[in-house]
Amino acid sequence: ANAPASNFLRGIIEADLAANKYANRTDPNGHTLPSVVTRFPPEPNGYLHIGHAKSICLNFGLARDFDGRCTMRFDDTNPTKEEQEYVDTILDSVKWLGFNWKDDSGDHLYFASDYFDQMYFMAEYLITAGHAYVDSQSAEDMARNRGNFGEPGKNSPYRDRPAQESLDLFRRMKAGEFKDGEHILRARIDMASPNMNLRDPAIYRIRHAHHHRTGDKWCVYPMYDYAHPIEDAIENITHSFCTLEFQDHRPFYDWVLERLAEGGFFKKPLPEQTEFARLNLTYAITSKRKLLQLVEEKIVDGWDDPRMPTIVGIRRRGFTPESIQLFCERIGVTKSDSWIDMGTLEGALRDDLDAKAPRAVAVLRPLKLIIDNFPENLQEDCTAPVHPHHPERGHRTFPISKELWIEQEDFMEVPTKGYFRLFPGNKVRLRYGYVVECTGCDKDDNGNVIAVHCNYFADSKSGTEGSNNYKVKGNIHWVSAHNALQAEVRLYDRLFSDAMPDAGGKDFKTALNPNSKEVITAYFEHGMGKALADDKFQFERHGYFVADRVDSKPGKPVFNRVVTLKDSWGK
Ligand code: ATP
Ligand code: MG
Ligand code: MG
């Protein structure tokens, strides 16, 4: 493989390695810890999407490249929105992308909820040390007293309450003596800080809610900004990568860890947070809330609808893990937000599958072609390579006979300028077969062409001496009508026709592409009856297709179009 391209996150890691910053660390059992430990920390409240794939490739990829470790952590500190179903699909998606949280040192699958006891204990310490207090203002007073950007906030009247009183209240919060919102635990930092995140941020709130893993054990839950640095430190994370919107949260991240290091909970060097630009992909939306809306309003056929930018969706669409990794490598990481063109993702799939996918013939919009001078009951074998650049992969065989299916667009009764395919009097090559000359067509009462007629030249077969005597410009694909496989094809296209469907508060539902899914019945060379769920093909002249992993049955595949051969958008 090629050396991965450099980027600023690699630069940071390389500098830390050169300085031995995280060298010589050991875990509590005395085992040496890697000098690079990253994590992928999703909240189990939805399906992963292509934006998460960027984070996965980044975190697991950097750990792999620097002989480090990447932990798989569920950030499940918010009881009300989280479910086991999401845990399962997230693990499945990460594995499918080609990454693994198990290594020689163990199984690094973690749940933030497993740290609740420690987080609670640390919060008691912060109270005792004078770094946190229980605030009893109403939510409205608290919001008002927080002030606005450019204008200092006001101290809560409870801010100087004695530590012992806060500790007592905090314990009673935990014991369930109060209702949601009655009290809240806050860090004591600086109500005049220009950074709003340092104006005594909340660290624990009361939430009488059932948690998918801890059940009813807790009725106080840690806030994300307090929990995340602790999760990182417990897992010995060195580099904590997150998206840019967390930049202003970093001072609090550092504050939490510094205070807890002072308390002897963590040893230096502490984990460090670095922000990178989130992925914005054109013709897609990557907000969990909006994706949920697409599913709930049945605009798409579920989370794994092949038009969805979810990992389960793009997998079902026919994208390969390698193409997603290639895409993430190509887009790199930057420090400023930008849009990545959907064409880049599609291009990565083409580049991955071009070398891998076996070729096959499919006729998507069938029209009958009758070779009038072909013997009535003859079926003659034609051969074609499985892959044009890999002769070692062998050949496929399919018969030619008197009646074939060709594409409707490969015939024009009255040709336009520059049209080289079938029209009366013109010759074309039937790919892997014979040269034929068109003689005319049959029409129904409405004037629609229902069959095309031609004669073949018996000495023109592809691969024989005589074939060289025929120079024709058109070269069309076909399948024999007598044994072609008939199967359903789902022609997928982009879900939105607007490149930025939800930019600037636009209603993304007005930007839907009405032609994002078309279901047709098509004809295939008969060998395609053996296609198994998830098998991928290049259907010659059409593009890349996959046998749908849900609806394909043995002998009865259903095909999804992943992408066309060339990018035709905007052209
Ligand atoms: P949403 O905002 O849609 O709820 P989220 O960012 O809160 O999604 P998490 O489950 O918390 O979702 O995300 C897990 C990890 O994936 C985080 O580290 C987050 O920064 C990263 N991530 C999420 N979306 C993107 C994106 N579009 N590009 C890059 N990384 C992302
Ligand atoms: Mg989140
Ligand atoms: Mg988010």
TrEMBL record:
Keyword presence, Protein biosynthesis: yes
Reaction(s) catalysed (UniProt annotation): tRNA(Gln) + L-glutamine + ATP = L-glutaminyl-tRNA(Gln) + AMP + diphosphate
UniProt binding sites for ATP: 43-45, 49-55, 243, 278-279
Domain Glutamyl/glutaminyl-tRNA synthetase class Ib anti-codon binding: 357-456
Gene Ontology annotations for the cellular component aspect, listed alphabetically: cytosol
Domain tRNA synthetases class I (E and Q) anti-codon binding residue range list: 476-548
Protein name: Glutamine--tRNA ligase
